TrEMBL record:
GO MF term set: polyphosphate kinase activity
Domain Polyphosphate kinase middle: 152-328
Species the sequence originates in: Caldilineaceae bacterium SB0664_bin_27
A GO biological-process term: polyphosphate biosynthetic process
InterPro entries: PP_kinase, PP_kinase_middle, PP_kinase_middle_dom_sf, PPK_N_dom_sf
Listed Basic and acidic residues bias regions: 1-13
Ranges for region Disordered: 1-26
GO cellular component: polyphosphate kinase complex
Pfam families in alphabetical order: PP_kinase (PF02503)
Record-given protein name: Polyphosphate kinase middle domain-containing protein
Amino acid sequence: MTRDLSDLDHASPEDPTATASSDSRLSAYADPVNSEAVARARALAAGLKTRLQTAAKPAPVVEAAYLLNEARDPDCPLLERLRILGLLASVLDHYFVEKAPALSESDQAEIAASLDPLLQQSYVELNESLLPALSDEHGIEIRRPQELDLPQREYLRILFRQQLYPLLTPLAVDPGHPFPFISSHSINLLVHLSSPDLGIGPLSHARIKVPRLMSRFVSIPSTTKKRLYIWSEDAVTGFLDELFPGMQIESVYLFRVLRASSGSRNGDELEAQSRGLRHQQLASPVARLEVESAMPDSVVEWLSSNLQVPFQLCFRSAGPLALFQLVDLANLANPLD
C-alpha cells in the first residue's frame, strides 16, 4: 500500500486518495525546485519502503507510525512536517477506502485499534507544535470564530450570506425523514434543534454538508502582520442561526465519512448503477466514520447505526477533520507555483 510522497498535490477534495503519475508525485511534499527538499522526500520514501519490508506489523500501522515520527522531527523544515502529517492522513484514507474493505472484520478491528492512538498523537503534534510554529515562523494563524473581533465577525457573516448560504442545503433527520445519503470524503455538520417558542424540547437533527467548492482555509482580514484564516467548517458553524431562524441550536458536531472504493462493487451493483437507481441503493458501504472528539457516545452510536458502520471503525478526532488538506495550509505559507 506504499504511496509516493506527492499524492497530496494531485488529490482533489472529492477524493484525496487519487493517484498521480510517477513523474510528478514528489511535488506536493516539497518544492520541486528545491533540491534539498526533493532529496529529503526521496529519503523519506526510501526509509518507509525499508520499514515496510522489515516490520512485522500491518502496513497501514507501519506507515502511520513512520510518518508521524518524521512529522515530529525538529530538524525537518516546518512546512515539510505539515505536508508529512497531511500525507499520513492521505495514506490512511487510501487504506480505508481501498484496502480495509477486503479484510476480515477482526483484522479491520485490530488495525483500527492500532491506528487510533497514532491518529490522536498526530493531532497533538499539529495543535501543540506545528500550528504554533506556523504562526511564529510564517505569520499564519488559524482562529476559531469566537476568537475573532467584531469587524472580523461581521466580515465573515457577510461572506456567509453572499457566498456560503446559497450553497447550503440542510436535510432534516427525524421520524418523518429518512437518514440522508452521505457522500464519501465529505465534511458534515450534525445539528440538533429545538423550538423554544413552542415550549417543547428537541425536535430533530439536521445534516449540513460543508461545500466542497469553498477553500478549506477561509481568509480573514487582519489589522496585524499575521495572516488569519478559519477552517471552512467554522465559517458554516458560526452562522447556523441564519439557516434555522426561530430555532434553538442545541448542539453541533462534525463528522466525515469514507466509503469503500466503487471497484469493490459486484457486477449486479454496477449494472444497477447503469440503470440510474438512487444513490442510496448504489452507495458503497461506509469504511470509516470520523467524528469530532466532543460528540457523545450516544450520538456516535446513533450515527454509526444509521450509516451501518461498525463501531470499531468510528474514530474520534481531537481537531479538524480531513487532515490531508494540510498540504494546502503549507502552500499558503510557501506557494509551489
